[in-house]
Amino acid sequence: MQEILTKPIRELGLKLEGSPLERFVQKLYRELEAKGIRKFRPPCYLSDEWGCPSEEPVIGIPFYLANPKLQRLEKEMNDLEDAREIMMYLRHEAGHAYNYAYELYKTTEWRDLFGPFRRPYRDKYKPVPFSRQFVRYMPGWYAQKHPDEDFAETFAVWLTPRSNWRQKYKGWGALAKLKYMERTARRFRNVDPVRAHGTTDITVEEMDTTVHEFYEKMANLEPVPEDLALDSDLVDIFNVSKRKRKGVRPAADLLKENRKTLTDKVAYWTGVRRPLIKNLVESIVARVGELGLLADVKNEAQYITEITAYATAMAMNSLTRGKLIQP
Question: Hey, is 275 helix, strand or coil?
């Protein structure tokens, strides 16, 4: 592992072909074929993150997913995508690529449904929770971020096998967008893309930084929760005497086992950026460990429920008041 950390990423010899990722890309292509999309197969390449460069019909996939050792490192540093999440990202990015390949965003019908493509992007946006004008796919009410994201999310829901979108979105404003996607796919099923190829963002062959430098930079970019006085709340939640020996275990162990699910669900239902939620959950886990709090094994479900509600309340405060504030 040390050898990997000190090597420039471009010297690791990473290739998408023959890697664990190849089967996911092929699965995406099969899903497109199953939907009758015969002329569109977005090229995929290894990059520093998930992404589809603006107006370029190509899909960038994180380099660490192409190598088992790098996957283990990513799992230690962050939360490694599982098979379901990889396909979700691929469908979403394929939506962007489809939009750009056929230049749908330039049409009046697309603008009337999704909004102006040139609207400025905002990393910090305030979604309207549970709005029925948008589909639900990626965490964080992501379709509400920008018209381009709205289309990509709509495409992903439409493409997902057995999504049952007609029934699920019956009576929603978002249904008109899904029906547009259905009509558009039929219209272009045998039509070559206006732009079959695109310009990539940074490729794995161009990444001069070492693996260690890459993760160091990523750590510095992640938002850190403001100073939080967690102690009294956490002691109240894990109210177990430290003298008790039977039927208890460290509360930090319980939270570590559930931290990815906690992070995923709080981010999904609140719409708060996942990196902030991840660091909030990590702060809670760390402080519970430092305090030496115990969990009664008979009440573990109750603890997880309460911690989820606690983190959700702080997350919602960050939406309404601009920062994490305890309830």
Answer: helix
Per-residue b or e along 50-60, where b marks 16 or more CB atoms closer than 10 Å to that residue's CB:
bbbbebbbbbb
Residues 6+ apart with CB under 8 A from 262: 255, 281, 304, 307, 308, 311
CA dist 258 and 255 (Å) reads 5
Per-residue pLDDT tens over the stretch 116-138 = 999 998 777 778 889 999 999 99
Task: Give the rounded distance of the alpha carbon of 248 from its chain centre.
Answer: 34
Q: Where are the beta strands (DSSP E) in the chain?
A: 44-47, 59-62, 248-250, 294-296
State the burial class of residue 70 (Cβ atoms within 10 Å of its Cβ: 0-12, 13-18, 19+): buried
pLDDT digits (tens, 9 = 90+) for 43-71: 999 999 999 999 999 999 999 999 999 99
Query: What are the tokens at 245?
Result: 């020996």
Compute the distance between CA of residue 188 and CA of residue 96 in angstroms, rounded to an integer. Answer: 16
Both tokens of residue 201? 């963002």
